[in-house]
Amino acid sequence: MTGVQTCALPIFEKTALRGLLNDLEIFPEYLDPQDTDGKAFFWFGSGGTITPLHHDPVNLIFVQVYGRKVWQIISPHYTHMLYNYRGVFSEVDIENPDYEKYPLFQRIPIIEVTLEPGDAIFMPVGWWHAVKSLDISISMSFTNYEPRKKMCKPACKLGATLKIPVYKFLQQPLERAYGKEFYQALSDIADQFYQPKN
Which residues pair with 138 in a beta bridge? Predict the structure, then answer.
């Protein structure tokens, strides 16, 4: 495994960069701009930087600002096949899996999507993912959800910002986890706003 990414910084808490949050308006219908301490993260890394296969204990919205990142995503349905013996990390090196040591891993379907500048992805709690920077990369992630607002309301506008291939591939898991109404809301919104790139 090449350079493991360790640069997830809650830099907005104690640095001059905190003022940048005043210039950001990211998903105000879901995120609480007053509750960013320890919940807004700045990611910076060189090309080839890797965040190993893991899951997060909270829902997050991840926004790609500069450069590109490849996300490899695995449903929590396969957790028992991911050799997760401690914490939130898998023992498997997703870039070079050792199928002799981890034979169950070769039966797991992996969803892959590339985030480009301006793309965002919603990653539900418990979903496994590994991330690799293809270029020098700047990203941000947010976990400061507004407690009174639910991510699963049919009025969800977040679908317009998701990478379209991600949630199309996730239709069955999303429907199982959140119901058909949630997935249909995402689909309807994306169909309304998404214009394919030429």
Answer: 44, 66
198 residues of the chain, pLDDT tens digit each: 444 544 444 455 555 666 666 666 667 777 776 767 777 788 888 899 999 999 998 888 898 988 999 999 999 999 999 999 888 999 999 999 999 999 999 999 999 999 998 888 888 889 999 999 999 998 888 887 776 554 544 333 333 334 433 444 455 555 666 667 766 665 655 554 334 444
Number of domains the chain is built from: 1
Which structural domain, as residue segments, surrounds residue 32? 8-153
Indicate which CATH number applies to the domain containing 133. Answer: 2.60.120.650
Q: Indicate the pTM of the whole model.
A: 0.68
- The token pair that represents 17 in the structure block: 């960069």
Q: How many residues does the chain have?
A: 198
Alpha helices for the chain (secondary structure H): 164-169, 171-178, 180-193
